[in-house]
Amino acid sequence: MKKNEYNQIISILYDLHIAYPHYNIGRHLATAFDGYGDMWGITDKEMLFSLTKYKSELDMDFPHIDEKEIDDIIKDGMDLDNILKEEDSGDY
């Protein structure tokens, strides 16, 4: 299959369907093109760019499953002043 923008768009939508089966295509499209308003005149190039950006952001946004990890992040955030003081004084 020729790798034109149209085919790449279809490929990204397929990849999103496989990676995130609990999201419907409407959710992907609405999120990827939020702020575009009327999409009637959007070019394939713009659509490919937006879907690629959306997929990259979604792939990087992984959930923190481990409750201990979340608790540790919150605890470290609450103690941030002490951590920064230790780094400044070289104790870290």
How many distinct folded domains? 2
Radius of gyration: 20 Å
End-to-end gap? 55 Å
Order of helices and strands: HHHHH
- Determine the number of helices (DSSP H or I, runs of at least 4 residues): 5
Number of separate strands: 0
3D architecture notes:
This protein has 92 residues and is mainly α. It is 67% helix and 0% strand. It folds into 2 domains: 5-60, no CATH class; 64-92, no CATH class. The model has no long low-confidence stretch (mean pLDDT 84). The longest helix is centred in the middle third of the chain and has 17 residues, at 44-60. It has helices spanning 5-19, 25-32, 44-60, 67-78, 80-89. Helix 1 (5-19) packs parallel to helix 3 (44-60).
Structure, briefly:
The chain is an all-alpha fold and 92 residues long. The protein is 67% helix and 0% strand.
Jot down its keywords.
single chain, 2 domains, 92 residues
Chain-wise SSE layout:
Blueprint: H1 5-19, H2 25-32, H3 44-60, H4 67-78, H5 80-89
Helix pairs in contact: 1-3, 2-3
